[in-house]
């Protein structure tokens, strides 16, 4: 079917930030006395807002993270982005195809607005997204895997959920989109399809997405 709105996750879908962000998070948690590997960070926190880190550490250890944890993590993540962040290969071609065919798009991310904007500036994507097309878990009470963020994005863009399709690379994101009543395509560049159950379909190369969306490049 055709769609009226394409909602992109940000980290790992628009910008190649997941390896950078999870290395930073794993290193910081380990430094604080909570040994965490990169693989464990991806498994436990990918696609989630930062409050999940606090909740899981408290649940597992009975200890609270420092009061300045979010601020320090944000600063370290943005510093890593400034050094190395790149756009996901092919994503600008996809955005160009959507624009050419008059299909609306936006993004809905677990990251903060500032983190999104820093990433887009460094990766060269800031010209593709108007401010009113950017939605963060900070805008809603509950982040992924709850449907709130995707429903909020659809509502603000004026499109019924059934006319939206989500592009995700995390299980929590797929669960959120499904709960919102939206189709969702799983991008498997980082995690294989068997770790992303429940999607409408899967693709491993961003240049495959226009065909899935019935948009010739």
From TrEMBL:
KW rRNA processing (keyword) present: no
GO MF term list: hydrolase activity
UniProt-listed InterPro entries: Beta-PGM-like, HAD-like_sf, HAD-SF_hydro_IA, HAD_sf, PGP-like_dom2
Keyword annotations: Hydrolase, Magnesium, Metal-binding
Gene3D superfamilies in the cross-refs: HAD superfamily/HAD-like, Putative phosphatase, domain 2
Keyword Hydrolase (UniProt): yes
Any matching Pfam family: Hydrolase
Cofactor: Mg(2+)
Sequence intervals crossing the membrane: none
Classification via SUPFAM superfamilies: HAD-like (SSF56784)
Entries under NCBIfam families matching the protein: HAD-SF-IA-v1 (TIGR01549), HAD-SF-IA-v3 (TIGR01509)
Record family assignment: Belongs to the HAD-like hydrolase superfamily. CbbY/CbbZ/Gph/YieH family.
Name of this protein: HAD family hydrolase
Organism in which the protein naturally occurs: Streptomyces erythrochromogenes
């Amino acid at each position: 079917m055709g769609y009226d709105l394409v909602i992109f996750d940000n980290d790992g879908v628009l910008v190649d930030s997941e390896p950078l962000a999870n290395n930073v998070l794993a290193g910081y948690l380990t430094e604080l006395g909570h040994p965490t590997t990169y693989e464990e960070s991806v498994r436990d926190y990918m696609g989630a807002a930062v409050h999940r880190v606090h909740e899981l550490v408290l649940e597992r250890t009975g200890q609270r993270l420092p009061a300045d944890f979010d601020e320090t993590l944000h600063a370290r993540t943005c510093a890593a982005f400034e050094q190395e962040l790149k756009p996901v290969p092919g994503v600008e071609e996809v955005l160009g195809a959507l624009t050419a065919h008059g299909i609306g798009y936006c993004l809905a991310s677990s990251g903060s607005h500032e983190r999104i904007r820093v990433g887009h500036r460094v990766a060269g994507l800031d010209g593709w997204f108007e401010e009113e097309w950017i939605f963060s878990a900070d805008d809603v009470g509950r982040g992924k895997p709850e449907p709130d963020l995707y429903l909020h994005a659809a509502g603000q863009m004026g499109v019924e959920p059934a006319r939206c399709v989500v592009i995700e690379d995390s299980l929590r994101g797929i669960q959120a989109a499904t709960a919102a009543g939206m189709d969702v395509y799983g991008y498997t560049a980082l995690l294989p399809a068997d770790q992303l159950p429940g999607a409408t379909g899967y693709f491993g190369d961003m240049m495959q997405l226009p065909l899935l969306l019935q948009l010739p490049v």
